Amino acid sequence: MHIVAVGLNYRKAPVDIREKFTFSDESLPVALQQLKRTKSILECVILSTCNRTEIYAVVDQQQVCGHYIRSFLANWFQIEIGEFADYLTIYEDNEAIRHLFSVTAGLDSMVIGETQILGQVRNAFLLAQKHNATGTLFNMLFKQAITMAKKAHSETSIGENPVSVSYAAVELGKKIYGNFKNKNVMIIGAGKMSELTLKHLHANGVGKIVVANRTLQKAKELAGQFAGTFCSMGQLEEMLVEQDIDIVISSTGADGYVLTLEQMEPVMKKRKSKPLFMIDIAVPRDLDPRLMDMPNVYLYDIDDLEGIVESNLEQRKREAMKVDKLIEHELEMFHQWYRLLGVGPVIGALQEKANRIHQETMSNMLQKLPDLTEREIKVIRKLSKSMLTQMLHDPIMRIKELSAGRRGVEELDLIRELFALEDMLKEQARLPKDFLLESKPSESDDDRISPVNPVLA
Questions:
Q1: Is the pTM of this model over 0.70?
Q2: Residue 235 lies inside a defined structural domain of this protein
Q3: Active site (catalytic) residues
Q4: Residue 109, annotated ligand binder?
């Protein structure tokens, strides 16, 4: 099995490409089920944010998995592969795991060290788990990535000096105006990003605040936190004029533009050419790109925010080096866990083979020596069992040591061949998962070779 990560992110794909590959919250469960049914994909998680759409998958055919995932994206979004293939990033095995750790810790974010991505990865994993799209590998890997990211933020200063996308939008506004005193701001959308943006604006002494949202109650609740005014999406043009708005910051989950060129032309006439700065931090974009061609309208999108807060980022970059070391440690821990996955079945097969040899030998002996007393049989059985247990002890310990090494998988393959365990392993694989738990002890269970826990022993 192999782990791959395939997707588009802000480093390689511009926003006009990324916005075409955004999964809505409503469509994700269906997309996960369809992806899980894709050939060669055994487990999968879809991460869809404003800066990235990435598919993480456990696959059984590394050579062709990229093709299958590209085909899934093309079919789902009805876009020819040739139109986006050059923008894709593909990570495999070790690099895919490292990439997930980096993404979750915020090292791969546009604003390094931001914490919002941690919650987004967590939600993506929990949704995939809920819809049975994950299994043994991803249940372990994503939990480890989330735990590692929390540790990174608590043990380093990677998350200090706020530089989230919303903070960067406010910093851009400050670069434009110097300060927000007496400046009126309209926030379109009432989600988490909008709330964070308003917190930064409020802390910077903004003048009037207007919150617009599709659900009026949410707009009212958010505006109420900052003594602001609220309105519906249908009142945008009216409020831009009446409230004498200086800056618009938009962050919704709308499928189309919330403000178009046609809507804004009469608005700008009524504003008598007063400048309007518009910052679009949504993906897909909320504001019609044609607005940047209008006189006195200054439009910025999420890609324009990169590099806005370099001073704070420098400190985060230094802290990122500490997180990199943590990632390398976690990477090795995952590999150790993964290598031990194969140990249990191999040790179990070896013990089972020894048990069967022991039982067959005892059965043959009793046929040839029918006059043995019960006490003699018990003594022979106990001594022969002890001999086999002692004989197996060192090989089992050695198996665990070898599996923990860098060539653990190859070493286990050699052990399977050396002890001819292939048939035994196939037989075990056909048993129900809870077979050993559900089975009642047999009369000959005291003859069995004592089990050795491959992880704890």
A1: no
A2: yes
A3: 50
A4: yes
